[in-house]
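Why do we care about 3D structure at all? Because function follows from shape, and shape follows, mostly, from sequence. That is the central idea of this module. The next example makes it concrete: a single protein chain, its amino acid sequence, and then its structure expressed as tokens.
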Amino acid sequence: MTIPFEPTKSFCYRVARYDFLDKVAHEPEALTGLPFRLSPVTRRVIERDLTTEQLAIQIPAAIADRIDTVYGTIRYFVQLHARKLANSPFIWLGAGMFKLREESDIEQEMEEIELEATDEDDIEDAASQFDGWIYAFSFPILIQQNEAFPIKIGKTIRDVEARVAYQCKGSASFDNPVILGSWQVNRVSSVETAIHATLKSRGRWRENVPGTEWFNTTISEIETVVRFIQPQLNTR
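And the structure:
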């Protein structure tokens, strides 16, 4: 168990997503690459890490106004993440059956997106259900020390530097952008939306400026919001 045990729905969500989902992906049934039934494999993995007493503790159910057990809640979230996460290691086949996602499956999905998209922005929008990068940039003349200043916050599934260069190409700017930070996240479009909504609620959004997604904020504030939304992430 990599996450300290807590008999809460939040704990069940986190441990299902960040611990058990990966462990199921490394079980023999999954590693064959053949379709398998997720439920019994999930049960074996959960029971290996948690005691019978822990699994029997009752908490509010994940999907209804009733009481469920820790075991039932974790099992529900493993199934949910296996089906819904953009970076799920599995492909859902229906009727409780899954197979391990292979690199060729991801490449095929990306190829289909690129065939349907017409330009760089279309590709980014169409593929935003995948993993990607949240990035923040500004211009040298705008950057301030120890106080908020205008920062553009966007997303990409590709190279951050190339995306920022594309966005600034042809714009009325007389200086090169400075990339202030980037954070690798799951389901990048949802994360970007949550960041924008949080900063807007704090009155940070700059409405009357050329372009969109500009906020009066700091890198420290952005990183705090990103880490709150997605605790496990990579930065650069």
